[in-house]
Amino acid sequence: MLKKVNFNALFFMEKTIINTYIDQNKERVLNELLELLKIPSVSADSKYKQDVLKTAEAIKTRLMEAGADKVEVSATKGFPVVYGEKIIDASKPTIVVYGHYDVQPADPLELWHSPPFEPVIKKTELHPEGAIFARGSCDDKGQMYMHIKAFELMMKTNTLPCNVKFMIEGEEEVGSPSLGAWIIENKEKLKGDVILISDTSIIANDIPSIDTGLRGLAYMEVEVTGANRDLHSGVYGGGVANPINILCKMIAGCHDENNHITIPGFYDAVKELSEVERNELNKAPFNLDAYKNDLGVKDVWGEKNYNTIERTGVRPTLDVNGIWGGYTGEGAKTVLPSKAFAKISMRLVPDQNSDKISELFQKYFESVAPKSVSVKVKPHHGGEPVVVSIESPGYKAASMAMEETYGKKPVPTRGGGSIPIVALFKQELGLDSILFGFGLDTDALHSPNEHYGLFNYYKGIETIPLFYKYYTQLTSKK
Ligand code: BES
Ligand code: MN
Ligand code: MN
User: How far, in Å, is the centroid of ligand 2 from the Cα of 419?
Assistant: First the structure.
C-alpha cells in the first residue's frame, strides 16, 4: 500500500501541471459535458426554443464557475450569445474564443442506437478508449466545452498567460442569422488579436491537422409548379408537364459528363491552386480505400481531374439536400403533382461570393425551365469561403501546441464544411480565425449516432492551454 502511494506521488511529480489537472478532474469534466448534451438545443426547430435558452444559461453558469468575468447571456434578434471574459493585463494579447451551443436536429431518430439526448459512452474502432454518443457531442458542444475547461484549468493552476473573451452562439446550425448584427453592435467589447475556434476536424487521432480554409455556402430552395392542381396521372399524364420530372431534369443538368457544374459563370471567380499549393495539399495522408470502406461505397464520385481531397477541400459543389413533391405515403396513388420542391446547396471556394453565386443559380434555373412550368427560387443562408495563412502567429501557435501534445507536427488541410461567421470576423473585426478542431470527420456530425472521442475531448483540453502559451510568446513585444 505504502509503495503504491509513493509511486503515485512520483508519477504526479513528473507530470506537467496540465496533465495532473486533467487527471484529477477527469470525471467531473466529462460529467459536465454529458449534462450539457442532455439539453436538446436544436436551433432549427422552434419546439426546442426553451431548451436552446436553457443551454445558454447553463453555459453562462459554467463560464462563471470557471472564473470568467462579465459573463452574460446577451440578447440578439434570435438566440442569445453567451459572453464572458478574463482580462489579466491590457498589454497582453487577447484570444477571442468562438463556438456554438446549438445543435442540428436529431432526426431520423429511428437510426440512432441510443437516444440522441441521453449520452452514452461506447467504444468504436476509431475510438478504442470510448466515445460519447449524443447529438452535439462533437459539433459543437464537446469541442466548445473543451475551451471552457481549458480556461478553468489555466485559472485554477494560475497559468493563464493572456486575456481571453468567449463568444458562444446559439444559431450556427441555422446560418448565424443574428450574429453579424450582434458583432457589429459589440465591436468594442470584442476587441482582440485572434479568434480561436474548435469546430472542425483532424485527419485521425494519430494524424493531427489544422484546417487552413473553410468553404462558403449558398443555400437555395426551388419550387416548380405545373398545373394549378394535382391531376389524375392517367387522364392528364403525357399531356401536362410533371414538375417533379422537370425539376429532376433541371437538377441533372446542373452537372455535365465530367461532373463539372454547368451554371454559366459559376467558376469565374474560382482560384485555381498553383502546382506548389496543389502538391502541398496532397501531402496530407489520405487513404481512399478506408474512405470508401467507411462510407460503404464501391467508388467515389466527383469532378474530373481532381482527387477526393481536392474535391472536398478546394473545389465548389452543387448538391441537392432534399427533394419532395407528389405522393410519398403508403402504397400507390396515381397523381400528377402540381408542385415539386428541392433544397440545393452550393459549397463555395475562394474567391466565389455567395450573393453572386445565388444570383447566377437563380438566373440559370429560371432560364432552363420550360414554358410548361413556373419556377420560384428563394435563397436561404449564405456564407463566404475563408483561408487561413500558415505564416500567422495564430497558426504557428496552434501547430506548436499540437506538435507538443500529439508528438507530431500537424498537417495543414482544407476543411470542406462552412462556418459562415468566420468571414465576418475578418470583415467586421479585422481578426483572423484559427480552426483548431479536434473531432474526426467520421464522428457522424449532423448524422444519426454523432459521437466524440474521449481521447479527442481530453486532448483538446490538454492542447488549448499550450496554444495560449505559444500565442502569447509569439506575439509578445520584446
Ligand atoms: N462545425 C460545422 C462545420 C465544419 C465541420 C467545418 C467539419 C469543417 C469540418 C458547422 O457546425 C456546420 O455544420 N456548418 C454548416 C453551415 C451552416 C450554415 C448550417 C455546414 O457546413 O453545413
Ligand atoms: Mn459546428
Ligand atoms: Mn454543424
Answer: 7
Q: Which helix (H) or strand (E) holds 458?
A: helix 454-475
Q: Is residue 3 part of a domain?
A: no
Q: 437 in a domain, yes or no?
A: yes
Of 169, 419, 434, best ligand 1 pocket probe by most atoms within 8 Å of the beta carbon: 419
Mean pLDDT over residues 337-360, rounded? 97
Q: How far does Cα 317 stand from its chain's mean position?
A: 17
Q: What's the CA gap between 381 and 217, in Å, rounded?
A: 8
Domain boundary among 288, 309, 330: 309
pTM above 0.90, yes or no: yes
Which cell numbers hold the place of 58? 447553463
Which residue segment(s) compose the domain that 288 sits in?
275-309
Q: Summarize pLDDT for 406-445 with one digit per residue, the tens.
A: 999 999 999 899 999 999 999 999 999 999 999 999 999 9
pLDDT tens string 178-210: 999 999 999 999 999 999 999 999 999 999 999
State the CATH number of the domain containing residue 364: 3.30.70.360
Mutate which of 344, 424, 434, 445 for ligand 1? The one with the most ligand atoms within 8 Å of its CB, which is: 445
Q: Which atom of ligand 1 is nearest to the CA of 174?
A: 19
Residues 299 and 352 occupy one common structural domain: no
Q: For the chain, how many structural domains are there in total?
A: 3
Mean model confidence pLDDT for the chain: 95
How would you classify the pairing of strands 201-202 and 439-440?
parallel
CATH code, domain carrying 154:
3.40.630.10
The cell 447566377 sits on which residue? 360
Sign of CA dihedral 245, 105, 444, 121: negative
By percentage, how much of the chain surpasses pLDDT 70?
96
**Which amino acid is it at 185?**
E
**Smallest CA separation from ligand 1 atom 13, residue:** 173
pLDDT in tens, 67-105: 999 999 999 999 999 999 999 999 999 999 999 999 999
Q: Is 419 in the pocket of ligand 1 (CB under 6 A)?
A: yes
Q: Compute the distance from residue 194 Cα to the ligand 2 centre, in Å.
A: 19
Contact 90, 158 (CB under 8 A): no
Looking at ligand 1, which atom is closest to the CA of residue 420? 18
Residue with the smallest CA separation from ligand 1 atom 4 is 417
